[in-house]
Amino acid sequence: MEYIKYLLSPVYGYSICIYTALFFIVTYLAFISQKKEENTPEEAKRKLLYFSLSFILVWFFYVFNNTGTDLPVYINIYDSSQLDPQWINANGLEKGYRVINALLHLVIKDPYIGIGLLKTVQITLVYICIYIMRDKINLGYSIMGYMALFYFQSFNLIRLSLAGSICLLSFVLVYNKKYLLSIIIGIAAATIHTTAVIFLFAVLFYAFYNTFKMYKTLWLMNLLLVIPIIIVFGRRIIISILMNSNFIERYNSYTEDTGSIGVMQIIFYLPAFIMFFIISRAGFKENERITDLCYILTLFGFAVAMLGYSIGLFARMSFYFAQTFIVFMPYYIQNRSEIIRNRTFRMLSPGTFSGVITFYWIFRFVTTISGLFIPSGLSEYKLVFK
């Protein structure tokens, strides 16, 4: 296994140990920060402190890292940015991201500080969104899912991760029925990374679904049938569109016409699909909005992940549909005792179930960090002030 090889390597062991320790410590702090109904005010403050400490740790190691293959590119963009129409409207980079860099560069010349502020916004949005949902989800598994899948990916994909965190905020707004503001926020994300438009499609689908809710089963079944068709037949159509349109030229290099089957993605999404199935069969109606919204986003995310085997650009878009792993699965875990009142679904004891889920997230962390370690330039963790 690649992870063990890196861990035992005298060259890479230092970095992989930092990432592993960070994963477990931050997750532990999130678990002990979970509020309970019987908490006294003093206990509630202490738990908020634990959650804040987990944030400070992920913030420090993210904002002050000098690691990632694409970091020099972001530094170059920042150094060359200027509030000039010619630079703002130049091809090759979304205008929203250009404007943000140009405005920051007016007052902050040091690229590490400027990019550090963007990183701070990104990581803060993630934590704020998770904290807003704290009463409905298991905080520990939510942060564990984020750390396993998206945190270390952010070291290299700074711009996409910023757009992804804005999409997460858009999701929270949709959940709270602030549809117009959610769409505006989603559009803002697309001005930072054009690919965020796929998240907007999912939100618009949910808006139509919610408007015509009397046809709920028809909507959800149609989506369930359409997604496999998109995966099987949509690959070449999307590649053709990307190759023959005026879509940002540099994204064309991410297309590859292969017929790979995403077996690993099926395995990765299987626990979520099982949870949706159990909720449906158990007839659990409490908080249907979060289940319906996450179901739609999960199917979109699964389709994007499967298409990512042929279109490399899609493989990078998983953050837009992070809700499956950092909201829905922790929501199911938090409410499992209510969901499985029917003995038919009591296949695992609470302790065994927690063990299985914990193992799943450790496995996801190991596979993610192994895949990112060399290609994304994480093999040598460095701080900016070293």
How would you describe what is shown here?
- This protein is mainly α and 386 residues long.
- The protein contains 18 helices and no strands.
- It has helices at residues 2-8, 13-31, 41-63, 71-80, 85-88, 95-107, 111-132, 139-151, 158-175, 179-192, 197-211, 216-244, 263-282, 288-307, 312-315, 323-334, 336-339, 350-373.
- Helix 7 (111-132) runs parallel beside helix 9 (158-175), helix 11 packs antiparallel against helix 14 (288-307) and helix 13 packs parallel to helix 16.
- The longest helix is centred in the middle third of the chain and has 29 residues, at 216-244.
Q: Percent range for helical residues?
A: over 70%
The tally of helices reads 18
Query: What is the first-to-last residue Cα distance?
Result: 31 Å
The assembly state of the depicted protein chains is single chain
